[in-house]
Amino acid sequence: MAEAMIAGLLRQELVTAEQIVGSHPRAARREELYTKYATHIFENNREAVLAAHGSEDSDQAAHTGSLVILAIKPQRLNKVLHELKGSIHPDQVVVSIVAGARAETIAGKLLHPAVVRAMPNTPAQIGQGMTAWTATAEVSDAQEREVGALFAALGKAMRVENERQIDMATALSATGPTYVFLVMEALIDAGVHLGFSRHVAQDLVQQMMLGSVLFAMESHKHPAELRNMVTSPGGTSADAIYQMEKGSLRTVLSKAVWAAYQRAEALGGEKG
């Protein structure tokens, strides 16, 4: 996800490569990122943050302008916060995309109150992401605009009211591609079962899903209205919908989102 941010910032020309500093523990990965983006990648997180002030994949703290971005695995958070404690400049904003990590926890362990908590999703890697974010009171209006521009470079960004809604977005939009990919896989398998080759079934399903989403966005109609438009009495859609309702598809999806939300909240408790 951090690499998606680097690519998005450079693609939108919001910063130059020289303005981005990152860190990664593996030399091969550092060399790969430098070759691809011409950004300076340190081995040590603290060195990266200190070098970045005044000038962004696993164990890493990335910086653009006045933003220090924590794009790390949740289980590495405490280690990284310990490394960075005392190194964040007062005019910098810490942006965390660590699932479940509370802003209060990050601020307390870094001794730095200006924290943004955000949750992007994987389509951000192609500039089609959805990112929900919120900020502590210490983040200024100007800094919020900078954060908004960062996430807009990855797709669409939405500022939400509180951290509970970040956990909600984690379960819905951030985990959401998982649900879509599973449905996509199931439909492709169904096509193969019907007799299509796998690559033909995949092409049919992917374009159908893409077109359906674009049509829904342009029509501005409720999904139920769109569904009714293609459901004729006694037709194929009616029979298909009957089986999906019989199989409790809505309930299963709702339970999946709720389970993801509970896990996001639990991660916050584990970090705190």
Task: List the keywords.
ProC C-terminal domain-like fold; 272 residues; 12 helices; 13% strand; alpha/beta; 2 domains; single chain; Rossmann fold
Tell me the overall shape.
elongated
Q: Name the CATH superfamily classification of the largest domain.
A: NAD(P)-binding Rossmann-like Domain
Strand order within the widest sheet? 2-1-3-4-5-6-7-8
- What is the chains' assembly state? single chain
Provide the structure class. alpha/beta
Number of strands: 8
Bin the strand percentage: 5-15%
Biggest sheet: strands, sense, closure? 8 strands, mixed
Averaging pLDDT over every residue, what do you get? 90
CATH topology of the largest domain: Rossmann fold
Low-pLDDT stretches: 56-65
Q: Report the radius of gyration as a whole number of Å.
A: 21 Å
Number of helices: 12
Q: What letter string, H or E per element, gives the SSE order?
A: HEHEHEEHEHEEHEHHHHHH
CATH architecture of the largest domain: 3-Layer(aba) Sandwich
What this model shows, in words?
It is built from twelve helices and eight strands. With 272 residues, the protein is an alpha/beta fold. The protein folds into two domains: 160 residues, NAD(P)-binding Rossmann-like Domain (Rossmann fold, 3-Layer(aba) Sandwich); 93 residues, ProC C-terminal domain-like fold (Orthogonal Bundle), CATH 1.10.3730.10. The chain has an eight-stranded mixed sheet, sandwiched between helices. Helix 8 packs across helix 9. The longest helix has 23 residues. About 4% of the residues have low confidence.
